[in-house]
Amino acid sequence: MTTDPLTAEVLRNALVVAAEEASIVVVRSAYSTFIVEGSDASAAVLDARGRLIAQSMATTLMNSMALKLALPELLKDIAPDTMRPGDVYALNDAYRGGVHTNDLLVYRPVFVRDAPAYFTATMIHVSDLGGLSAGGMAPLATDIFLEGLRLPPVRLATAGGLEPAVEAILKANSRTPDKVMGDVRALVAGTAVAAARLESLIAEYGADGLASGIDDYLDHTEDRTRAALAELPEGRFEAAYPIDDDGIDQERRHHVRVAVTLGRRTAALDFAGTDPQVPAAINASASQSLAAAVFAIRCFLDPTIPMNDGCLRAIDVHLPEGSLLNARSPHPCGGRYVPIYAAMEAVFQALSDALPERAIAASGILQPFSIAAVGAPYWIHLSYDFGGVGARRGLDGPDATGVHFGVGRNSVPQVEPVESRCPLIVESIETIPDSGGPGRYRGGLGSRTVYRFLADCHVTTRGDRLRLAPPGREGGQPGRLGGFYRRRVDGTVERLASKVNNVLFAAGEAFIVETTGGGGLGPASERDQGAVGADLDAGRVSARGAAQDYGAG
Fold first, then answer.
1. Which of 447, 346, 347, 355 minimizes the C-alpha distance to 392?
2. Is 318 helix (H, G, I), strand (E, B) or coil?
3. What residue stretches are annotated with the Hydantoinase B/oxoprolinase domain (predicted)?
């Protein structure tokens, strides 16, 4: 069908737009501040074989890989021949493709000749589904049961509306039941919009024509991915990256290890040797670790290659079962950012060895936290902020954006809506001078945000790279460490551990979030003095830093 290139391109874009429109509907319909203001919603189109066909522009690899890996699990439990038009299904089980408790994966079958041929899917982090702390953060969980409600594949809705029993379960397990159900209805609405667009494509191209066009699209993506891999040097490249601690044992380090083997038109990423899973919130499910691996290698490929199943065919990822990157029950998975960022960094460093002309130093990462009411009625502010990116060959690292395959800085809610919904004042948001690792190319700066509370509240944090600084490369220096802090009413400041749960803050106290800077690349003595002067003028380095780190007089 798609011998005509113009028709093929129109079809490919129509599939992406179907997912994109679903994502927009979810954002505009959701109740949670994090979704409405941060636009953190994902949507995708898959087929009944579990192939990822298209995803919205805002969909993160973390979420699209979850939607892909969880669909076969849904179909194991619920036979396709029992599905009916209007049915909608949901799950959140991390061991079955999901992410963690608060990330609900929602699917709607699209029928061809009376059988499900495609699924439209949406996914967001709903406001709260129980667990040790509000908003789905449980940094000190020792098993998955402390992270909140675990939902196996269930029918969430029919053509007649939400299933009353499932609605009752969700509401009974949430501190914010009205917001959760508002979020759930938004997810259902998003799948409906995408399904309608997909049905119109079936009508326009015919069932066989659409199926043929999708096959061609995935094959085309595979060919482009393999061609891009063929440009990389063949060989085996190994690296590892450490994790600060697990929150339970402050002195215990954990490591993620990878061997990247580049063939003529293939890539294999083997994480054998990664430390085993632990009864602490620094494990990840397979879908999240797959996302980290795929994202990291795609950073060295043509960025215009579409993200769909065709790309995945060329990349083989091995995640040892029972390791930090592929946890088994009952080990918690909510702290997935910690190990998968280490996995991503390990791949970056291995590929930087393979392609030194495109090397990148290690980065500061996102630092998640939640602020919540002490008791009912509950309000929750769930957010994070980003560290500086490591310096790259020929370029300084971007400031306070973090190398992030989950969401971008646009997902950080703006000040005004946060202050209008929560009893707090955001006193300041700024980058931190001298926080980027000095080098010929400077690491990106970390940031500082100060929240002053107007009511007593609980603060929960889940940080990393706050004890072990991101190292520089080739003589570059590490980034400055960030941290979480409490500023008392009398002005004294105390540092919190990187992973704390429900720390009570009193009205008038302030919570300070400082993120870590990225590592530098190359000796600082080789930095162009004009660049040092420009950094001084822009406030990225202080006069003292310029003199101490770069020898500027």
1. 355
2. strand
3. 4-523
296 touches 288 (CB < 8 A):
no
Computed over every residue of the chain, the mean pLDDT equals 94
Instruction: Starting at the earlier edge strand, list the strands of the sheet with 380-385.
Output: 380-385, 367-373, 457-462, 499-505
Of 441, 428, 463, the C-alpha closest to 523 is 441
pLDDT at residue 72, as a whole number: 98
Residue 258 and residue 296 in contact, taking contact as beta carbons nearer than 8 Å: no
**Contact by Cβ (8 Å): 275, 256:** yes
| Gap between the Cα atoms of 333 and 502, Å rounded | 19
Helix or strand run (H / E) with residue 501: strand 499-505
DSSP 378: P
Is residue 438 helix, strand or coil? coil
Compute the distance between CA of residue 62 and CA of residue 124 in angstroms, rounded to an integer: 11
What is the CB neighbour count within 10 angstroms for residue 509?
18
CA atoms of 44 and 191, how far apart (whole Å) = 9
Q: What percent of the chain has pLDDT over 70?
A: 97
Question: Phi, psi (5° rounding) for residue 184?
Answer: -65, -45
Residue 425 burial (C-beta neighbours within 10 Å; 0-12, 13-18, 19+): middle
At residue 163, the 3 state secondary structure works out as coil
d(CA 423, CA 475): 46
Q: CA–CA distance from 215 to each of 7, 209, 303, 548 (Å)?
A: 14, 10, 21, 58
Tokens of 278: 């632990």
Go through the chain and tell me how many residues it has: 553
Measured CA to CA, the distance from residue 142 to residue 144 in angstroms comes to 7
Q: Is 8 exposed, middle or buried (0-12, 13-18, 19+ CB in 10 A)?
A: middle
Per-position DSSP letters for 405-418, written without gaps between them: SS--GGGSPPHHHH
Q: Rounded CA gap, 158 and 164, in Å?
A: 11
- Other C-beta atoms within 10 Å of 147: how many? 25
Q: Which residues contact 215 (CB under 8 A, 6 or more apart)?
A: none
- Rg of the chain's alpha carbons, rounded to an integer? 23
Give yes or no for a contact between 388 and 445, defined as CB atoms under 8 angstroms apart: yes
What pLDDT digit, counting tens, does each position of 232-286 carry? 999 999 999 999 999 999 889 999 999 999 999 999 999 999 999 999 999 999 9
Expressed in angstroms, the distance from the first to the final Cα of the chain is 68
Query: Where in the chain are the domains?
Result: 5-205, 231-357, 359-552
